[in-house]
Design goal:
Shape: globular
Number of helices: 19
CATH superfamily of the largest domain: P-loop containing nucleotide triphosphate hydrolases
Helix content: 40-55%
Strand order of the largest sheet: 13-14-12-15-16-11-17
Strand content: 15-25%
Distance between the termini: 45 Å
Structural class: alpha/beta
Number of strands: 17
Number of domains: 3
Length: 481
């Protein structure tokens, strides 16, 4: 492929140029995953293995879909359908609905809390219950294929900490489904489940899509849940022309039903699959990469730094939450005064409450910021510092990253009690660290805003940074060693 040799490293090129059939690419953070994926698709088109219109590339966010589509256009490839799972399912359901189901297509419910506000008081809940968390429990149950009457048992067997009494959540789930069906609504999980059922039972639909889409590409495959995998299986049928890309170390949505086992088991499902690992990190300095490697759980090869050395990562402890806010704002202002662009700075928090706190502190200091939570990934804006949850930061990167609130009970979260939950918290820490290109700071407060002591520094600080040297430097920070 013209130009590929000049821009791809040896591992990327091998993954791009392998013949069709099942392909699995384990791509660590900053290793050129999207570039490799784009060149892989372009190679399939240019060598005649597939027409662009016969390729369905699946991502998990509209931002990722837009980025991949733009890269393909830059390579001169148009006509590939790049979409999220949900968007592809919605489009196909709308096409088949009048032909195979009949009647008016239901209205899509964008926010479950709209219905839950009506449902929760009626089933014994109160307005104080966090409807977003209840919505998350319903989403989890739906993607793992469990009905409302199994919620209480599921909570116990999975070790989940419910946002309300399990009986209240189960009743809310039941009433939510009843009201949704009564009002002729569909939620996002319904799109996946209904299309899967349609393709499994209606040969006409399955055959039509089999003719339309012959090659499948799945990005962030470690984040696939059971409902998405079921739909992918229905699309594939008996074929195996699929390329998946992912990283088990970045599997951070287990609480929502995602599972890295589909990625990890890929070569067992397809014994003849070609498997590649991308380990050269082009994003972060060697100092940041070293910290990330110490925290990695060993499920994939260690990252190899390619950038020149940079500043040492910094670990800071503060007397309380207010001091952490003030100290972080001061450090950000110093970076800005040193010429770092606001859009290249991020403050990442484990919980939404601290996102709100840091955003307020930055604005009070006269600094612009853009915020985002776990369910609303941000779009980066010029001249604005990003303040986001760690989950929302997935797939993004900045020159300078401040990881805040790394205290036991906050991170890992107190509700992360099982080994599986703790492992996911560690992967979330890995994701946070690998967002930084050059400057990395980790901090935690010794006391809460009301003076109550927090737990000691997070175990992840010790794991990622090793011991912390003797005392503060001129900036009041401790340097990892």
């Amino acid at each position: 492929m013209s130009g590929a040799v000049d821009v791809l490293d040896e591992d990327q090129r091998a993954a791009v140029e392998v013949a069709g059939g099942p392909v699995c690419i384990i791509a660590g953070p900053g290793t050129g995953k999207t570039r490799t994926l784009a060149y892989r698709i372009a190679h399939l088109v240019r060598c005649g293995a597939a027409a662009p219109s016969h390729i369905l590339a699946l991502t998990f966010t509209t931002r990722a879909a837009r980025e991949l589509a733009e890269r393909l256009r830059g390579l001169g490839v148009d006509g590939v359908h790049v979409s999220t799972f949900h968007s592809a399912a919605a489009r196909q359901l709308r096409y088949f609905w009048p032909r195979l189901i009949g009647g008016r297509f239901p209205t899509l419910l964008a926010d479950k809390t709209d219905l839950l506000r009506e449902v929760v008081p009626a089933v014994g809940g109160t307005d104080r219950l966090d409807l977003v968390d209840i919505a998350g429990e319903i989403e989890w149950m739906k993607v793992v294929g469990r009905p409302p009457e199994e919620y209480e048992k599921a909570v116990e067997t999975e070790g989940r900490v419910p946002p309300a009494s399990p009986s209240v959540v189960a009743a809310a789930y039941r009433e939510y489904e009843r009201l949704k069906n009564e009002r002729h609504l569909l939620d996002f999980e319904d799109l996946l489940l209904l299309l899967s059922a349609l393709l499994e039972t209606e040969s006409e639909a399955a055959e039509l899509l089999a003719r339309r889409y012959r090659v499948f590409v799945v990005d962030e495959y470690q984040d696939v849940n059971a409902a998405e995998q079921r739909l992918l299986d229905a699309w594939l049928g008996t074929r195996d022309d699929i390329c998946v890309v992912g990283d088990p170390r970045q599997s951070i949505y287990g609480f929502a039903g995602a599972s890295a086992r589909y990625l990890e088991d890929f070569s067992r499902r397809f014994p003849h699959a070609a498997v590649f690992s991308l380990v050269r990190n082009y994003r972060s300095t060697p100092e940041v990469v070293a910290v990330a490697n110490r925290l990695a759980d060993g499920t994939a090869p260690m990252l190899r730094a390619t950038r020149p050395p940079g500043p040492d990562p910094i670990v800071r402890d503060f007397p309380d939450e207010a001091a952490e806010l003030d100290g972080t704002v001061r450090a950000i202002r110093a970076l800005l005064d040193g010429g770092v662009a606001p859009a290249e700075i991020a403050v990442l928090c484990r919980v939404q409450r601290r996102v709100n706190d840091f955003a307020a502190a930055l604005r009070a200091a006269g600094l612009r910021c853009v915020t985002s939570g776990a369910r609303t990934p941000s779009l980066r804006r010029p001249d604005a510092v990003t303040v986001a949850t760690l989950h929302a930061a997935k797939g993004l990167e900045w020159d300078a990253v401040f990881l805040t609130g790394w205290a036991e009970g906050w991170f890992p979260a107190a509700r992360a009690r099982s080994p599986e939950a703790l492992a996911e918290e560690r992967r979330l820490a890995f994701v946070g660290i690998t967002r930084a290109r050059r400057w990395l700071t980790v901090s935690w407060p010794a006391a809460t805003r009301d003076g109550q002591p927090t737990r000691p520094m997070s175990r992840f600080v010790a794991e990622a940074f090793g011991r912390v040297d003797g005392g503060p430097d001129a900036a009041g920070a401790f340097r990892a060693s």
